[in-house]
Amino acid sequence: MEGRCQFWKDYESISGTVCYCELAAFNRPVNPDFLEKIGCTPEKRKECLGTMELNIGGGAVPMVTQPPVEQPAPVPVAAAPVVYCDPPPEVAKTVVGVAEKKAATALPSLALLAILAGAYIALGAVLFTIVTNDLATYIGDGLSRIIGGMSFSLGLILVILGGAELFTGNNLIVAGMLDKRVSPKQVLNNWFWVYLFNFVGALVVVTLFYYSGIWKANNSAIALRAVNIAYAKATLPWSEAFFRGILCNWLVCLAVWLSFAAKDAVSKIMGIMIPITAFVAAGFEHSIANMYFIPMGLILRGHEALQGLLNPAVAQGLTWQGFLFNNLVPVTIGNLIGGVIFVAVAYWSAYLRPLAVSRRMIANGKV
Question: Could you name the CATH architecture of 88-363?
Answer without folding.
Answer: Up-down Bundle (1.20)
